[in-house]
Write the C-alpha cells for this entry.
Amino acid sequence: MHVQNLPGELFTLILKLLESRDLLQCATVCSRWKDLALDVKWKEHKVELVDMFRSLGSIEPSWFTTKHSSIKDAVASAGWRRLNELRKKVTRLRIRKQLALDDIKYVISLQHSIEAAHQPFCPKLRRLDVKIVPRSQPYAYDFLAGQSLIKIRIRWTPRDHGPLMVMIDAVERAALQSPMVEHIEVSLSDSHFIDYGKFSRIRTLIHEGDFSMESLSQLCKGCPLLEVARLWWMQAALVDDETIYSEPREIQVFPALQGLNIADAAYGAPSLRILRSTKMPQLRELEADLGEEGFSETHMLFEHIRRESPFLETLTVTAGRLE
C-alpha cells in the first residue's frame, strides 16, 4: 500500500514517532500531510509561543529589542479562526522568545471579545515552560493556562522588584486557575514571596531562589501530597537567630514527603530550622547543607532524623568540616 493511501489514524500514529523538525518537513509534502503533521505537532510536541503566531504569517524579530513584531498583522491575514484552532490543540508550550506587551494585550483582547474573560488561551495546555531573558519586560503568562495544566517551569533573573512581582503574582493566580498542577520548577531570585501552599495538589517542587520560613510553613499547611522538594539558595537573612536556635513553637509535618534536598543554604541556618521543626515520616532520601553552624548539632540532628524518619535510606549531610 502506498503511503498516501494509509488511513488517517494509522498515518497519525507514525507521525507521533517523529521529532518536531521532521514533522515540519512532512508538512511541506502536500496539504493532507500538512494538516496531519501540524496537528500532531501542536498536540504532542512542545511548541514555542511565537511559532504559533508564525504559522499564521510572517513575524519578524526587531533588530533593536528582543520582542517580535507583526503579530497583529499575522492574525489579521490568517483570520482569528485559524489561531482559534491552533491554540485549542496545544498541550505543551514553551516561551523563550519574548513578545511585545502590546502584542500580548492584543491577543488577550481578541480572545475576550468572543469568550468570557476567565477562559484560558490554551485550554488543553498541560505543560508551560517560561524563560524570560534579562532586561526584558515580563508579562502575566498565566492567561495561557487553565484546568488542564499539571506542570509549570519558570526561569528568570529580575533586576528590580516591580517586574518580579508580575511573575510572582502570575504564579499565584495560576494556582487558582490551574488547581491540578502537580509539578513546579521556579528559578527566581528574591522569590520568597511565592505562596506555594495555594497549590494543594503539588507533588514535586524545585525552587531556586530565596526561601523563607514562612514559605516553608505555607508549603506544609497547603501541600499534603508533596513528595519531592529541592530548595536552593536559601537565605539566612530570612530567618532570625531566635527562630533558628530556640525550641520550635510549632512542629510542621510533610506527611507524604519522600525526598528533600536543601542546598546552598547560607551558613546552614535554614537547614537547621527545617530539620528541627519538621516531621517527615515517609522520608527516604535527605540531602542537606548545614554549614558551619550545623557542625556542633550534627549528632543531635542525626538522632532526631532517625527517630522522625524511620524509612530513611539515603542521607547526605554537609556541615562545616563534616561531609
The first strand starts at residue 46 and ends at 48. Residues 62-68, 236-248 have pLDDT under 50 and may be disordered. Residues 268 and 293 are 6 Å apart (CA to CA).
